[in-house]
Amino acid sequence: MAVNKNxxxxxxxxxxxxxxxxxxxxxxxxxxxxxxxxANGGTFGAGIKTIRVNGSYDAPxxxxxxxxxxxxxxxxxxxxxxxxxxxxxxxxxxxxxxxxILPDTIIKTAKSHELYARWG
Length: 120
What we know:
Helix content is 0%, strand content 28%. The protein is mainly β. A four-stranded mixed beta sheet has the order 5-4-7-6, with no helix packed on it. It has a three-stranded antiparallel beta sheet with strand order 1-2-3, with no helix packed on it. A hairpin with a 3-residue loop joins strand 1 (2-3) and strand 2. The mean pLDDT is 87.
């Protein structure tokens, strides 16, 4: 959008003529990123090891039912510990052991990224 003394041109090459003072408001559309859920040794059933979901910056993560604790097929003898930002030690925990989003867990990565199932 370009603004000059007498008109405003938006992204669609339309001009708005102003006759005096004008107040402009920005309209923001959140960026959408691909979030890959990596079963990290387990599966989502039928041998599926990853699934992708959409996520918006500064919004809560959305974990589908197929990626919640009871729906995952664990590696032999392991228990689901939740979804994390790293596959092993460290990182940030995103869900509890049932796959429920933890409070104040919002997307703060401004690009497509991966979450990992942790097993113990």
